[in-house]
Write a structure and sequence with these properties.
alpha/beta; 8-stranded mixed β-sheet
């Protein structure tokens, strides 16, 4: 992912909330959160991961996405909280495991097992079992790790970040049982089940937006710091640059 250009947007002033999209997604999918968060006194940052949306690149992986979550968070001053969708929730959890600090997190439709995500992707694009297994093996070889070690329930018990989870009972992309597994493993996590919102409409539903913003606002520090400066670079050590855009 070195040398890739990452599109980054920011809005508002106050403690920063980082919005993280999922696999094959883009930052704009979470912009329904922007105005409610700005109205609640937060600044908001989102981005398109390499290989997604307006950013450059053709490929990505869970370890790389996790590194990008941490890199964007660090480059934008350190987030107070994260709102992450689908595979972006898995990447955020790995980033937290590896040292990224936030005060609160909201996960929407989180997967529990990256291998299950790869299988689902393979089913969507019509890959055979032998092909997706080879793909998984290449990822493990490239990063010298086991995908099983990235399963959230395996390491979530060691995370102490207050977490709210929203997951639809009819989600066809990431089944509810995945969100339930994350909620059981993550200390103190609260799971809210929705109906009729699926995997994407859940990102725009008032019954998700309102309690999610309220949850983040409950822990907001009274001495809120200034809003984000113009984003000039992201993770220069990774050779990655950002195109900064301020929202109105």
């Amino acid at each position: 992912m070195e040398g890739e250009k990452v599109a980054v947007w920011s809005w508002g002033e106050g403690p920063r909330v980082l919005l993280v999209h999922g696999w094959s997604g883009y930052g704009g999918q979470l912009t329904a959160f922007v105005q409610p968060l700005v109205d609640a006194g937060f600044s908001v940052v989102t981005y398109d991961a390499p290989g997604h949306g307006a950013s450059s690149g053709r490929t990505s992986s869970l370890p790389e996405l996790a590194g990008m979550v941490a890199a964007v968070g660090q480059a934008t001053g350190g987030p107070y909280a994260v709102v992450a969708h689908s595979f972006g929730a898995a990447a955020t959890a790995v980033a937290l495991r590896d040292g990224m600090k936030v005060e609160r997190a909201v996960f929407i439709s989180p997967p529990a097992d990256p291998l299950a995500g790869i299988r689902a992707f393979a089913d969507t694009v019509g890959l055979s079992e032998s092909m997706w297994r080879r793909m998984a093996a290449r990822i493990e070889e490239r990063f010298d790790m086991r995908l099983a070690d990235l399963a959230l329930p395996a390491f979530a018990p060691g995370l102490d970040v207050p977490l709210r989870i929203f997951h639809d009972v009819g989600d066809r992309e990431v089944p509810l049982k995945a969100g339930e597994a994350v909620a059981r493993a993550w200390p103190g996590a609260k799971l809210t089940r929705t109906e009729g919102l699926g995997h994407f409409r859940i990102l725009y539903a008032p019954e998700v937006l309102s309690p999610a913003v309220d949850f983040l606002a409950e822990g907001r520090p009274s001495n809120a710091w200034p809003g984000p400066e113009l984003l000039a670079s992201v993770a220069s050590s990774r050779g990655t640059t950002a195109r900064g855009v301020h929202g109105g």
